[in-house]
Structure formats: structure tokens, C-alpha cells
Amino acid sequence: MVLAGINTASAADLAARPYTKAPLAVATAYNWTGLYVGLNGGYGWASNGHQDILAPAGGFWTVAALGFGSTQTIRPEGGVYGGQIGYNWQVANWVLGLEGQFDGASISRTDISTFFPTTDRLSSRINSFATVTGRVGYAFNNWLPYIKGGYAGADLKTSNFDIFGNHLDHSGWRNGFVVGAGLEYAFAGNWIVGVEYNYMDFEKQTFAGPNVTSLGGTFGAEKFSDSLQLSTVTARVSYKFGPGR
After folding, report:
1. What is the pTM of this model?
2. Helix, strand or coil for residue 12?
3. Does residue 113 lie within any of the structural domains?
């Protein structure tokens, strides 16, 4: 009797317990906030307007009859490779960031002179460039499209030379601005891959100096002005410190 009573009570207790399902796991959105460092590589192409501004009628490298303001535009292109470091702050879906980037480059070209095509050449080379930018993006979980803008600088070298060994060289750091856009994807917790396009425009730079002969002597007086625009497309990979979720 006692055992029967105990069994009856146990059965009643079991029947009275409500059945509840285990809670479903809720996926959390990716957290873009944090410091990141990474590498990038891709391709760049430029337009370099090389203008003779020696008054009154140009110098040794241009036809005097064309006069003041004779310009030859050269379009170098080539590979770019470098790294980036930055920090993102996420507010709701908006992602604000600051980034610094430095790239080496092999963007170069040599053209026949439009003024003395038989004997003269013009070369242009970008050896490196750097940007410091602000970024604004809108996150769709692991995806982040963004735009960017800020400071850009580039190391440009130009050279007029001829088959006799005479040359006029100039190199210098150019200051300007950059605007760009990109798309990034976060995966495996802290890894980020992306693609990016940048357009850079630099202030005109004027230089003056003598020509140099093959024996190291100098002659003449020259004065040129260079304009420069640069575009790049790069693939990027970065590692973000801190939690991804």
C-alpha cells in the first residue's frame, strides 16, 4: 500500500511538470570595433603632366617654336604593395575609422619625346605613396562597405634624357588628397579581407636647375612643373584585435 502510494504520487508529480524547449541560440552581429593591421597589394596607374615653363620660349628639351607652356603627358603604371594600420569604432550599424597606409610601388613608364622623338626620352616613376584617412562605413553583419578620404603623399621622379647622355632629373615628395571606397568581409573571428579603390590628386610642383652631361658637367637653365594623379586598386587582408562577436 505504501509503495503504491509513493508510485502514484511520483506519477502525479511527473505529469504536472510542464514541458519546455531549450532556448534557441541567437546569432550575434559581428563587432567591427578594434585595432587592425594588415597587408595590401594590387595595381596602380597615373597621369603625369610634365610642363616646360621656362620663359620666354622653353628650354633644351622642348621645341622653342612651341613656346612657353609646352607639355608632355606620360602615363606610368605598375604594381603596388604595402601595409595598413587602423582603428574602427562601431555605433549601431555605422562604423567610423582612422587608417594609415604606406605602399611601395613600381609604377613607371618611359616615352619617346613628343618634341625630339629621334633623340629624346621622358620617364616618370612613382616609388612609394602614403595615405592618412578617415573612413565611414555601414555594417551588414560581416560585410562592411565604406568610403574614405584624407591626406595622400607620393614620391615622384621624372627624367628627361637623350641618346647622348644628357639628362635632367628631379625627384620629390608630393602632397595631395585621396578619396576612395572599399568592401570588407570579416571571417574566422578576427580576419578581414577586402578590396579597395583609391584616387589621389597631388599639387603641382615646380623645379629648376641645369642639365647634366654624360661627363658630369652642367649647361643651360631649365624650369618644369609636374602635375600628378594616381589611381590604385588593391586587395587587402587584415587582422583585428579584440572580440569579433
Report:
1. 0.85
2. helix
3. yes
* Residue 1 pLDDT level (bands cut at 50, 70, 90): very low
Question: Is 165 contained in some domain?
Answer: yes
**Domain assignment present for 24:** no
Buried b / exposed e across 201-214, counting CB within 10 Å, b at 16+?
A: bbeebeeeeebbee
Hey, what amino acid is at 193? V
Classify burial at 1, counting beta carbons within 10 Å of its beta carbon; exposed 0-12, middle 13-18, buried 19 or more: exposed
DSSP E strand stretches across the chain: 34-52, 71-74, 77-91, 94-112, 120-138, 143-162, 167-187, 191-212, 218-240
pLDDT tens sequence across 33-82: 999 999 999 999 999 999 998 887 788 898 664 554 588 999 999 999 99
Domain total for the chain? 1
Residues 23, 25, 26, CA angle at the centre, nearest 5°? 115
pLDDT digits (tens, 9 = 90+) for 70-100: 889 999 999 999 999 999 999 999 999 999 9
